[in-house]
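The following record pairs a protein chain with its ligand, pyridoxal-5'-phosphate.
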Amino acid sequence: MVKHMSENDDARLGTLCVWGGETEKNFWLGAVEVPVVNSVTFGYKDVDKWLAVAKGLQAGHIYSRNTNPTVAVFEEKMRRLEKAEAATSFSTGMAAISNTFFALLSAGDRVVSITDTYGGVSKIFLEFFPRFGIKVTLCKTEDYDAIEREVEKGCKLLYLESPTNPTLKIVDIRRLANFAHKFGSIVAVDNTFATPINQRPIELGADLVIHSATKFLSGHSDAMGGVVCGKKELVDKIFHFREINGASLNPVAAYMLIRGIKTLHLRVSRQNDNAMQIAKFLESHPMVEKVFYPGLPSHKYHEVARRQMSGFGGILSFQLKGGFEAVRLFLPRLRYAHLAANLGSVETITGPPATTSHVECSPEEREALGIPESLIRYSVGIEDVKDLIADLEQALDYLKTAI
Ligand SMILES: *Cc1c(COP(=O)(O)O)cnc(C)c1O
């Protein structure tokens, strides 16, 4: 007889990746894997019971835009991993972020955030917020004092991301969350790059944690999704906005994400190890100008990263000598990397910010954000690191002769 885990049981992360959300479920016909329930609606012979479920007085499902059994397992798994009171899911990471904003903010509210948020998020801030009368102030990502000064002036939401894309800047989550709470602000953190294996923002004081599940949680570049975990009172509001507005997660994608998360702890610990070795190798190569990786002691906020992360993650970036021409020559030489925009997959994926994270910016805007044109973002896969290093080495050695 399997001993069922209780709500408060403190199973470790590796166990929660596999079992989270799945121990107390009584799956159809004794299936041991989560069934994909594609049914859009759920029928009731007893009208009183139907009414009770519809009113939320009894457990059950009515319509899959609101809730769905497969999707619910994904949400519960993520809730457990992020140590949150509640979780709700979305069709994409951007849906998770935009629904959070529009569920919690009203005209006249003010948001404080950082200049290095994900490209789509800064688009929402700068392109859409003005139309809804929501104000936003963006601070330099690593100027914690400046962020505090802006929070002190009053804001409804402090929105953070750490590590950031593509230069792996680190935000001091505990310090800023504590400060913001003194002034009554809600604190949300995009934890996509770190994953709950490497960083748990709720333990550091955040109210909400957001993921693009498309990245490491899926882990195989074959499913899109998003999730918000955190305080029940806030997640309920965000769920309500989503159930009406309809950016719901598809049950097939939910199943792919559940399957992906079962190996999250294995993949991420391998990616942490691979990335560390690759960062050290790159730092020692004469054709590399600079390496950005929070695990390197040369990283400006390495100490903050050490304090708040239990691993430094699978993403690094590096600047080549020789400008964008070097990028153009270098990338096609790589054998074990997709040149593509996604990240967090079992395969190594790489590309310059000009075609990936900051495709919508001009070269001048990228420069203003401190993103050099010769930068390459490298999302390390789970391959044998010796092959990845040999691959990088032959491409860098070629640059020596070609530049
Ligand atoms: C990809 C990404 C998003 C957006 O997620 P989608 O699933 O592509 O909508 C948000 N934040 C970060 C940090 C990301 O990398």
